[in-house]
């Protein structure tokens, strides 16, 4: 995984820098119902859109996985409960076996 990161990071960085250099022209952003306008470079708008899209995707994926996280938590709790019950039953069996052993026979 580290190797893949090291192989993909430099070309991605070069691509991002190339996009930023090529798209320096200012654009006007206006938020329609509001009276605000701002001038910003086009690359800032592009990168902001990418970051916002990634954030929305991350939140959506996290939200969709909530069922699996809940199921995993429930199964973990069941596993712990079964382990405790197993330990209790083993201890109970060991106690029962030691109580049922006949007294040791001594040679006369």
Would you write up a description of this structure?
A hairpin with a 6-residue loop joins strand 1 (26-30) and strand 2 (37-41). The model has no long low-confidence stretch (mean pLDDT 89). Strands 1-2 form a two-stranded antiparallel ribbon. The protein has one domain. It is elongated and about 105 Å long. It has helices spanning 2-22, 42-64, 66-100, and strands at 26-30, 37-41. It has three helices and two strands; from the N terminus they run H-E-E-H-H. With 108 residues, it is mainly alpha-helical.
Extended strand count = 2
Ranges where pLDDT stays below 50 over 5 or more residues in a row are: none
Gross morphology:
elongated
Structural class: mainly alpha
Helix-strand blueprint:
Elements: H1 2-22, E1 26-30, E2 37-41, H2 42-64, H3 66-100
Antiparallel strand pairs: 1-2
Summarize the structure.
This protein is mainly α and 108 residues long.
